[in-house]
Each structure stands twice: as structure tokens, then as C-alpha cells.
Amino acid sequence: MRKEIIVWCFVLFACCNCKSQQVIQSSFSNGNIPITYRNHIYIKGVTDSVSGNFVFDTGATNLYFDDLFYRSNKFSYKNLKNGHITGAGTKGQDIVIIMDTVNFSFASENYETEAVPVLMLKSILGDYADGIIGLDYFANSVLEINYIDEYIKLYEDINLIDVTKYKKLKLEKFENRLHLPLTIYIDSINKISGLFRLDIGNGGCISITSPVAKENELEKRIENKVGSFSKYEGVGGDSFCYYFRADSVLFSDYVLEDVTMNFSTDNAGSLAVYNHYGLLGNGILEKFDLIIDFKELYLYIKPNENIYIPFDFSSLVFGYVNRSESMGVWIVASIRENSNASKSGLKIDDQIISINGISVSEILFECQDDFFDDVDEINLEIKRKRRTKEINIVLEDF
Do strands 172-174 and 206-208 pair parallel, antiparallel, or not at all (unpaired)? Predict the structure, then answer.
């Protein structure tokens, strides 16, 4: 019989002294490890002879499987438990946890991991994500991340890297997560300074927690903002936030101007906590070459060519999850309030079959971000409650 346990905010057995993953072989001499970067960092890995694409997430601890990936492959794990997990969003997921030893490898790194949660990840991240790799897999190493050339590289010691052109930031680690200081200049009068969580599993720029937003009266003080409801924000599901543009962000010695970000209004979940100010995601981090020294707790940053690309909101005004491989559709996951999408009748959970006459199954994952470039209006064929209809949406800037 399966027992019930609870997992909070991706921290699995955080209060235990047991070791949930163990490195059984490591090599720091095999050069660059290829990644795919599309708002998230995808690493090809193999788990008990089954290959998949795993999202690297410093907001996670160890190894996590997607439910469909788990059920579609012939894994023979016997020792399973039921549990519940929460994260971004106000709800959570009932999950299965594999208590057997799971063998996982990527490049020349080999691990044995126990207590592997099985989550509904594809409903959040899309079909390309088969699982998540957390920060404990890199705890005894130094990690270089190159967003431009799409590779990571592992080192045994920071002294093996020339860091003379990098800025060095001290990281603070608590609740098994990494944090660093940021200052956000909302406008010429209001600013926010505090510790933000380093969240490489977050595809956005900055998300401010609801307690910080409330304390600083952001909903009242920020006039030019737009609300957005998301049903698939994270493992916690439903979430509401306001998007806005801050005057600038001070990141180490670098001043980033006109930065797009959001603040949460959630009353539960990982964006309703009081112990940090918010999340720092790839929307900002991708503008730098990164080196994370997990052993000594430092982040090294050096601007790359993305630094010259201005921050901007998508003109699409709705978010979607790419389920073209498993379901043949894209699923509408979020819609901005009072946008052309909402006025045109688009709804959360609508299943997009085609866009401008092109089946979404024909749009490659690697090309989906560029698909809407230079497009002013889109015609969607959608399926809703077994009926199909067409919706026309004029794209708009915010």
C-alpha cells in the first residue's frame, strides 16, 4: 500500500538527514555539454536506459520525472509512495514518488537518486520537457552556462577558469536555494532592494512576491500595468499577477533599463512567501555568461551579446503550452486582462489546432518563439468542448 507524504515547494525531505542523490562517477574533462535554450535550459539525459530532455532548475532540488514520460516508458520501480507538492501557483499536485534507486546520467556525469517525484510537468512546460534536474546535481562543482552558444561546462574548482572579466556576486543559500541581492527602481520615487531567488527554471525576468508587492503598495503605485491569470503557472497551478515595466534594475554593477517584470497577488504558493523578495529568471540571466560556484557560493557574470537586446513584452498577449507531440494542439494557459485575445473570445484551456492555416504540429519546438515575428494578426482554429471555431486576434504591444 502506498503511504501519504507531503512535499513543499520542490523541497523533498528537506528536514531529513538522509542523502537522496549520490554521484557515482564524475568527470570534469569532457568539455562543453550541449544544451537547448528556449527560455529554459534543456539537458539531454538518460535514466535507467531511457533518454529524455530535462530542464535545469535551481528552484528544484534533485531529479523529477514528468508523469507522461514515466507512464510511457517501461520502468520497473516497485517502491512507490503518494505525496503532494506545491510551488508557483495557489494549488498543488498529488504525485507519486519513486523510492527505489534511480540511475540518471548526462554527458559523463552519473548519479544514483532516491525519492524521485513524478509530476505533471508537460502540462506546465510542454511536451519537450521529460523531467527536471535540480541544483543538488551540481552541488560539488562549478558550472559555466553559455546561453549564446548553448552549452554548459562543469569544473572541479573555480581556479581552473579565467574570471578576470567577470563581476563576482556573493550568493546566500537557505532552504537549499540560492539568493542574491537586486535593486529594482520601479520609477523615480519607488524602489525595492532585497534578496531574490536565483531561478534558472524561470523563463521570465523578475517575479516579485505578493508580500513584497503588498508592503510596497505596487498595485496602487504602478499605474501602467496589466493583469494576467495563468492556470499552469507551476506545480501550484492557478496564479494571478500584474505585468509592468520598471525604470531599471541594478544587478551587481550593471544597470538594466526598462525591464519587464511582474508582481504576484497570490495568497498561497511559492510567490506568497516572506523569506525572499522574488525570483530572478532567465529573461535577465540570458544577457550574461554565467559561472556558478556551488561550493563557495559565488555567481560570476559577464555581459554577452544579448545585453544589447531591449526588454519587451510579447505582442501575443496570451500564453500557451506546446502539447503538439502528445495531443496535436497548443493549450491556452494564460490571457492578459482586457487584451485583444480576451475580447476576441479566447479562453483558458482552448486547444489551438492551427495558426494562420498552419497546423501547430508543423511548427518545430525550436522555431515556435520566432513564429510570431513580423505578424500583426493571427487566425486561430481552436477546439473547445469538442467543437471547433475560428478566432481572429490583432496582436498588440504593451
Answer: unpaired
